Amino acid sequence: MNSLDPRVNRLPAVGQPGQVEPRAPLDQFGTFEVFVQAKEGKPFQHEGIVHAPNLEMAFVLAKEAFTRRFTCVSLYVADTRHVYVSAMTEGNTAAWDFINTVADKPGEKISYEIYLLPKRGKQHQHAGTVKAATPEEAMSEAKKQFGSKMVYNVWVIRTSDIRFTSPEEKELWLTLPEKKFRDASDYKGGDKLKEFLERSKIQS
Amino acid sequence: MNNEAIKELLYKMADDQLILGHRNSEWTGMGPLLEEDIAFSSMAQDKIGQSHALYQLLHQLGEQEPDTVAFMRNAGQFHNCILVELPNGEYDFSLIRHFLYDTAEALRFEMLKQSSYKPLAELAVKIRAELRYHTLHANTWVKQLGSATEESIGRLQHSLEKALPYALGMFEPSPYEADLLSDRIFEGENALREKWMMHVEKVLSQTQLTLPDWKLIEPVYGGRVGQHSNHLQPLLDEMSEVFRIDPTAEW
């Protein structure tokens, strides 16, 4: 069935009796998590996701999707599949209570970034970096270092899985403070509407 | 300082930015994916902003107000190269044009940082961040699609071959080349073209796209002296429709 409505065209066709086949592959790009630093010295905060064919394209697309309006100094991205997530908790139960302590084992340790959710409904914020052999050990290390804070969820990402803004790229946001026209308030929609209504009153 | 030479340089740069900014904005709401729609629209807005800054410089040199200059001229009075006025076509053509044009634009402003005409040198320093993003965006897409699938490579290759004669038209010689050079205002179109070819070769060498022999490409000139394709006037009619009805309209 051909329709101008893309939702109709996406409807699965009626199948054949006895049909068994693998699930259709993803017909969309995968997702990447975007973290933004509002000011020098402030922690990076998770702002949302972009769809992209790879990490580098995700960085390029995240820049305009998440930082074209509000001033910021840096951003970075990581593949959603590279984010390890702890159990979510609520009320008086901290996420730490659900994280197992992993015994320290000899072996190569790599660097992991730690993100904490201080309040349900808020965004995850970067808390620091730990060394660990596995994501589970990184969670356990995070518990040791940040366990005194009340948080409801913990994320860990291998540092090497993140596409950071390079020092030369930090100038990408240089002219942003001047682009006031990108703020919704700059359109002065309310004023224009009021003016229009008053004008129509006079005419009628 | 040679004001006529500076004006010729500013007009062609400003008109390029305005016309391509408008063309690229035609993708708003129709981009291939939401994130790309936002990025491409945002860069189109940057281009219009940059054209405004250049028209301001012209205004300081005695030309009319930016709005008047942008909206009240006819095609024959525009100095943009023909590349930027061509219709968008499919996204592969828009992307290749974005890559070929923005590479040249970024290099031109890079050279102008040294200009003896200070207001232009200052503008070049100020907008370097926007240009860095525009070229990062273009290079990343071209590298991605230029090595992805048979279809993406084939489509980019086709658009590349179509765009190249017009792209060489960006460097149409100016009657003021010698003056610009001797007054150290700008190193000239030839020097820019040489740098541009090297950059284009460098990016395309990281893809499966093939660059035809430069010597076999016949540049399409005329835009800089107001001889345009028949695509420019309809664009101008649409862009200036509201301004021509009511120059004081705000929306």
Strand content of chain A: 15-25%
Strand-pairing-aware structural class of chain A: alpha+beta
CATH names the topology of chain B as Ferritin
How many helices of chain B? The count is 11
Uncertain runs of chain A: none
- Quaternary organisation: heterodimer
How many β strands of chain B by DSSP? 0
Main sheet: strands, sense, barrel of chain A: 4 strands, antiparallel
- Dominant shape of chain A: extended
Q: What is the level-2 CATH architecture name of chain B?
A: Up-down Bundle
Report the principal-axis shape of chain B: globular
**Radius of gyration of chain B in whole Å, from Cα?**
18 Å
Structural class of chain B: mainly alpha
Radius of gyration of chain A: 23 Å
Number of helical elements of chain A:
4
Distance between the termini of chain B: 40 Å
Question: Could you characterize the architecture of this molecule?
Answer:
The complex is a heterodimer of chains A (204) and B (251). Chain A is of the alpha+beta class and 204 residues long. Chain A has a domain at 27-167. In chain A, 22% of the residues lie in helices and 24% in strands. Chain A has four helices and eight strands; from the N terminus they run αββαββββαββα. Chain A has helices at 6-9, 55-67, 135-146, 189-203; strands at residues 30-37, 45-52, 74-79, 83-85, 110-117, 125-132, 153-158, 162-163. In chain A, the strands form two sheets. In chain A, strands 2-1-3-8 form a four-stranded antiparallel beta sheet, covered by helices on one side. Chain A has a four-stranded antiparallel beta sheet with strand order 4-7-5-6. In chain A, a hairpin with a 7-residue loop joins strand 5 (110-117) and strand 6 (125-132). The model of chain A has no long low-confidence stretch (mean pLDDT 91). Chain B is mainly α and 251 residues long. Chain B has a single domain, classed as Ferritin (Up-down Bundle), CATH 1.20.1260. Helix content of chain B is 63%, strand content 0%. In chain B, helix 1 (3-25) packs antiparallel against helix 2 (34-60) and helix 4 packs across helix 9 (189-204). Chain B starts with a helix and ends in a 6-residue tail after the last helix. Chains A and B meet through strand 2 and helix 2 of A and helix 2 and helix 6 of B.
